[in-house]
Amino acid sequence: MEIMQPDGPKRLKRSITDKMLGGVCSGIAKYSNVDSTVVRLIFAFATIFTVVFPGILIYLILWIIVPKDDLPY
Fold it and tell me: The domain containing residue 29 runs over which residues?
């Protein structure tokens, strides 16, 4: 059985099925049509190797602001 998506604007939502912490990276990956591992690696490298990009702070803010995805597909 296939779940039909309603036609409308594409929205960023946190994943409830493919998540490590809060599902933020999985939600960004689904929104961008890339693999979630790539987004996780970008956040990890940005957090570890740069001072300008506060990856942990941005992740926490997105975890609070971005709503959870209700459809587990």
Answer: 24-65
Q: What is the mean pLDDT of the chain?
A: 81
Higher pLDDT, 50 or 7: 50
Instruction: Give the list of residues 6+ apart from residue 71 with CB closer than 8 angstroms, or none.
Output: 3
Is 71 among the domain residues?
no
Cα 63 from Cα 13, distance rounded (Å): 10
Confirm whether 47 is domain-assigned.
Answer: yes
Is the predicted pLDDT of residue 38 greater than 90, yes or no? yes
Pick the closest to residue 68 from 2, 20, 29, 11 (CA basis).
11
